[in-house]
Amino acid sequence: MNAPADADARRAIAPVICYPTEALPGPDMALLTAARQTLTKVGEVTVPPREARCFEVPAGHFFRITSIEAPQVGDLNLHNAADPTERFYSGKARALHGTHLSTGDRMWSSFPHLRPLATITHDTLDWYGIDDFGGSVHDVIGTRCDPYTHALLSDGAQYHHCCHSNLTRSLAAHLGLPRADAEPLVHDVLNVFMCTGFTRDTGQYFMKASPVRPGDYLEFFAEIDLLGNLSACPGGDCGSEHSSDFAPCAPLLVEVFRPAVDSLAGWSPPSVNTYDRSHGP
Ligand SMILES: [Zn+2]
């Protein structure tokens, strides 16, 4: 279409932030920063390459996802441990905090709950910022690699170790459900350590080799009792391709920590959202 005469003026309108976060109930980062100095490790799970594993984190505990052995991306699902239908809402986290999450950002839950499941308390990759391609780490833009998109793009090819399938198998095993019943509970992820963005010219989703190195970690505070599910993406560091067995792939370590008893004085788990759910008269 031909641009209208005032096209430049229309484009020159300054953007407005959709969801200013000043009014958002924020975490007490001073309290959490002090509490994380008192941690005692109480459990760990190693996620094998091209597989997923579940883990549970009691409210008021911390958990860390650490790169071990080689650079590796992880696809994280979070559920309310008492009700797995309350789960991480990646799109709302994106709308509130931006395309990539880091320290102080929160993992919000699905409707009608919409409350923080977890708060990010430490990120050893927070130095990365936004690179010259528009890329950054820990995105909430890329959903998760899945066998359906792979079949669409690869002439019907069947691949069974996409993060979606890994998360489905691991959740089914953990909850004792048939895979067909567990699959609808799997949801869009936090792409831990993944380096992604949108190309400036075509707006396409891109990935590039993650800057993560063994020893780097992302740490969370569990705001309620959590069921976590983490997949070690078949894309490895996601520097070349995913949805295949070609990329070098490494395990990921999940560790759970308990803070000192008196370190969380004044904190309590967030209640569910206060909207009355009537949707009007
Ligand atoms: Zn993946």
Automatic annotation (TrEMBL):
Matching entries from InterPro entries are given as:
DUF1989 (IPR018959)
| Every DUF1989 domain range | 46-227
Any one Pfam family match given in the protein's UniProt record, by short name: DUF1989
* Protein name as it appears in the record: DUF1989 domain-containing protein
Which species is the source of this protein?
Roseobacter sinensis
